[in-house]
Amino acid sequence: MRLIHHPVLANYYVTYRCNAKCSFCDIWEKPSPYIELEDVKQNLKDLRRLGVNVVDFTGGEPLLHRQIDQFLGTAQEMGFITTLTTNGMLYPKWAERLKGKVDMLHFSLDSADKTEHDTGRGVACFDFVLESIQIAKSLGERPDILFTVFKHNLDQIERVYNDICLPNKLMLLLNPAFEYNQVETGDQLSEQELDYLVTFSKQKWVYLNEAFVKLRKDGGNHIDKPVCKAASTTLVISPENELVLPCYHLGAKTFPIQGQLYDLYKSKEVKELIALEGRLPACEGCTINCYMQPSFAVELNSYWWKALPSTLKYNLRKGTWKKMLS
Asked: What is the sign, positive or negative, of the torsion defined by CA atoms of 249, 251, 252, 255?
């Protein structure tokens, strides 16, 4: 049973450029412009009309954009919940200007071991994350640690939690790695390893959407009975100011927005593509977290119930539930 019939999230790619070269990501390999402020202002108005309440300014590395603080400030003024994930390298430079403008600020950190983390990210950024944590705390911010989980770094979760998260009173977000297109992450987590994540997530200040685990155990999305609602829950906007359908990772089709995002999303051609969400051949077996999370939130089914406890835990901790209800 569908509970919410409008999109709830916008993944707004400010640029595909990045100052890291993560082994599990291909975004940084793409040439890319930067989004324009006037386009952002118009698109945010249309996103509001469409019912979206969360805007994730993403990339690439979003802090490479020289107007990122203006995007975040404008979105907050319009009542959106804002979220941003960074590798931390540029956060010390931006911290003062970002203060109070990011509701959900995530620092990526995949190991308590400097060499292991920096190797995976393809650049020396471990020390920047630790510096960013201290700067954010000094400004009264409450960042989270986003830990991308692979087989090879499972043993690092407890160290990051005990050595970094608990002393700094930070939420640890466990993000099981996923594969897409030609980007492979190595062996997928076994059921036993997934169960370990679930058990670990029961501790305070640890977040894991258990519906992610259920989806993996179920073999991912199935095109004959799709769980994924990517196109109807999430609007993806590219740095070229295009609407991307059904999602960034498949990128089946793009539509120039040209200041008409609301009308474009309501158009017949876009509606026809939305009707195919989760049903395209490439959708079989998909477990891409960033589209599954909103998918779990809009339809009453077993995944909705699995996602509920962790969603409540995080939103209560962050205080974002008040904005969600407003």
From this structure: positive
Spell out the alpha helix ranges (H) of the chain: 37-50, 68-77, 91-98, 114-121, 126-138, 157-160, 166-168, 191-200, 210-217, 230-233, 261-265, 268-274, 289-298, 302-318, 321-325
pLDDT single digits (tens) 34-76 = 999 999 999 999 999 999 999 999 999 999 999 999 999 999 9
Q: What would the DSSP string read from start to end of 27-96?
A: GGGS------HHHHHHHHHHHHHHT--EEEEESS-GGGSTTHHHHHHHHHHTT-EEEEEE-SSSHHHHHH
For 239-253, the pLDDT digits (tens) are 999 999 988 887 679
The letter for the amino acid at 115 is T
Global pTM reads: 0.93
Strand order, beta sheet including 9-13:
206-207, 171-176, 144-149, 104-108, 81-86, 54-58, 9-13, 234-237, 242-245, 253-256
